[in-house]
């Protein structure tokens, strides 16, 4: 007879996996699956209250960040006009999901024993690979239907779908790499499978035409293979991956990559020669300056329209570049600057604590869990430098579910370390 704790843990795993799938293909309907997972995690914590043990730092950091969100919404978050209402609603929804993810992630970190986790984890490589390939197929299909335009799928534009696809693809490779490592002598076919999947994944990311994802994905893939120490002695893997990525870059260079990076080069030159000319890169530099200026001027936070008034005045006084004005009612294209400019220096401190706590959670974990958490952290930081992730509910939910699933990963054999 299956014990109550084992039954709850299995239902929890299936619920999280279902929520993860829904968050990719139909993110507007992920809510019931997400909160079912939360309910099961709370139930599991109650059932195992006497024997349950897990590291608390990352869940506590999530709780602090969510409470900081709520505090800002309470004190400064009343919308000034209808245009601001959507932004505040987005921040409120993000805070809710982060708050309710605390018991879910805490339970996933400490649930069960390694033996049970391995039984559950055996489903992940195939499931993640299928999800990743389906996402790629949908991207190819949409690119074809749109006649070569940028793909967006069910997310809010090409940039956001690029971040989502990078996370989904990296998680799939993470799980497939675990499977490859378990093949021992029969590793040739699994490695060819890995290389083939990388080709499809990177081509789908190229279709989003997002420079950050085009750069970050191969960096994370390289780091993942370097971290898989048992594979280091098999040089054909690295030669193969390098050749695959180079081939995809060559195929996509003239049509996708070259125009995007020519635009980047032109933007940098224009910003240096004529700082007032509106360019993508120049606007980002201007937004970073404006975010830091607002954080210093209002260290305890402010409302969106107050930030707009403050920065307008600074532009009129010649202290800031006027390129920033077109983005004040959207966001400042940097997680840290956006956070500090609205929630003050204490908000930036809470975001930094969240990053450090996730890094520390990865350090305390072992094997594949450590690698998975490190990859998610790397993606969050890299994309957060040039965009605002913690404003988009769909992406935040995907990140939270990804972290939860990583905790189910096989305890080994990638690297070593302590149990969580």
Describe this structure in words.
With 420 residues, this protein is mainly α. It has helices at 4-25, 31-47, 57-75, 82-110, 114-121, 124-145, 158-181, 188-206, 211-227, 235-273, 280-297, 304-316, 335-364, 367-386, 393-406. α2 packs parallel to α4 and α7 (158-181) runs parallel beside α15. The two termini are 28 Å apart.
Brief summary of the model shown:
Helix content is 74%, strand content 0%. It is built from 15 helices and no strands.
Order of helices and strands: HHHHHHHHHHHHHHH
Class derived from helix and strand content: mainly alpha
Write down how many β-strands occur, each being a DSSP E stretch of 2 or more residues: 0
In DSSP terms (H or I, runs of 4 or more residues), the helix count works out at 15
Strand count, sense and closure of the main sheet?
none
Overall pLDDT confidence: 78
Radius of gyration: 22 Å
How would you sum up the global shape? globular
**Spatial separation of the terminal alpha carbons:** 28 Å
Query: Percentage of helical residues?
Result: over 70%
Strand content: under 5%
Low-pLDDT segments, ≥5 res: 414-420
